[in-house]
């Protein structure tokens, strides 16, 4: 007989996320890929095999016992969990992508939540008024928000992570002496910012060499490199969080 | 001899947060108060006793091993942790404000992170362009953002929590059969929205009776009620997250 716990460990995880953008799902994908953890990217499967947008509508409509507000969601056996930072911590804890001790986990979660705040602010540069309206309908506000983001927020966040790398074990990672899931997320943000705001990001990273080096080190890891070179990696595009509009990056 | 762990359990927690607003610190204060957990609200002490704004500058400047991006921060013996949802989960786990089983904790964290997203969106109604600028300098954008928040986002978030209460143990709480820290946070958001957007919130809560009832039940809990009637509870005001500007709540 297989216990519920063993059976949930044996089933591949199911990631439910929009099939055409990196978005917040990408933070989860990177943990799964770096960890060599089997998963199914459900909505990227054909509709006739249960994939596509239907899969997303279905899980968001199925309130179950733990309804999610938004994707990404992860099905892990009987567990269905949402919120990006929560899913990442769940996977990292199970699969050795965060140190074992309690203090490191609180510290990792603190950093991850700060990464997610940074992501929200990066997103809101192109949607400062409403996520229900087009960028074109909020372009003037976007220019002003992007200016504040580039001049004040990006340096503040990157400066913080620069210090956090310095303050730790001085091994070049954010938590402890090895790469953790938080490093993968910071890598993703750096590449996203380079895509969206190439000019401003280049300037900022000159002042944040630890962060730039960390991103390069993550990118060179064999599992990450293989993933980035595969078709599984969706290119950055103007439907995602990090969008390149040249008028926002003078 | 006292072990490091015992000694950290005996020292009162130190909460470091802006002394004149509820802000994000209030979510932590509510956990401490409901739990009957001794704490010192450091920056609300006199400057000559190590309090005041100096205490905040000091902890944000002291990078230590786990620097924080922003307050609230919590000192718990040797641990210094930040990020509101992280601090709340830490305290709730230690002090019985969340069920013991792993599944409930992932679910609670998922809900808490959604509360925090809601808080960020409520905040950004009055600061859609830049936190470094005055409200008056972004008032036109604020009107548009507040309209989208009231018409689309508030009903979506409150509708989600309404379903989450329904989907659970049907005891009227968000997680399990007892109040957890997440309920305290949802209470705080409801009261904040009622302060900031009395008209829109009244309309929304008609469609979310579970949420309204939960907020009332939290407010009636003896420790919470005593706190709310004490001088420790800072009144809502126009420096915090939830600000009442009548032009944003037609």
From TrEMBL, chains A, B:
For biological process, the GO terms are:
glutathione metabolic process
Q: Where is the GST N-terminal domain?
A: 12-99
Boundaries of every GST C-terminal domain copy:
101-236
In terms of Pfam families, this protein maps to:
GST_C_3 (PF14497)
What is a single molecular function from GO for this protein? glutathione transferase activity
In terms of InterPro entries, this protein maps to: Glutathione-S-Trfase_C-like, Glutathione-S-Trfase_C_sf, Glutathione_S-Trfase, Glutathione_S-Trfase_N, GST_C, GST_superfamily, Thioredoxin-like_sf
Alphabetized UniProt keyword annotations: Transferase
* Protein name in the entry: Glutathione S-transferase
Q: What is the lineage of its organism?
A: Bacteria, Deltaproteobacteria, Bradymonadales, Bradymonadaceae, Persicimonas
């Amino acid at each position: 007989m297989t216990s519920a716990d063993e059976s949930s460990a044996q089933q591949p995880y199911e990631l439910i996320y929009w099939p055409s953008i990196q978005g917040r799902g990408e933070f989860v994908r990177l943990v799964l890929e770096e960890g060599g953890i089997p998963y199914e990217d459900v909505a990227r499967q054909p509709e006739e095999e249960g994939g596509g947008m239907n899969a997303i509508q279905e899980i968001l409509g199925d309130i179950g016992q733990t309804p999610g507000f938004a994707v990404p969601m992860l099905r892990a056996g009987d567990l269905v969990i949402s919120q990006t930072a929560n899913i990442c911590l769940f996977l990292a804890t199970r699969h050795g992508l965060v140190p074992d001790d309690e203090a490191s986990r609180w510290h990792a979660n603190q950093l991850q939540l700060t990464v997610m705040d940074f992501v929200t602010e990066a997103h809101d540069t192109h949607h400062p008024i409403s996520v229900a309206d087009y960028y074109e309908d909020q372009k003037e506000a976007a220019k002003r928000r992007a200016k504040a983001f580039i001049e004040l927020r990006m340096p503040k966040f990157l400066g913080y992570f620069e210090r956090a790398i310095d303050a730790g074990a001085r091994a070049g990672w954010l938590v402890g002496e090895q790469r953790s899931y938080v490093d993968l997320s910071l890598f993703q943000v750096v590449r996203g910012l380079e895509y969206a705001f190439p000019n401003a990001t280049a300037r900022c990273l000159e002042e944040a060499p630890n962060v730039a080096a960390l991103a390069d080190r993550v990118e060179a890891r064999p599992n990450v490199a293989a993933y980035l070179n595969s078709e599984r990696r969706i290119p950055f595009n103007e439907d995602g969080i990090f969008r390149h509009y040249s008028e926002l990056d003078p």
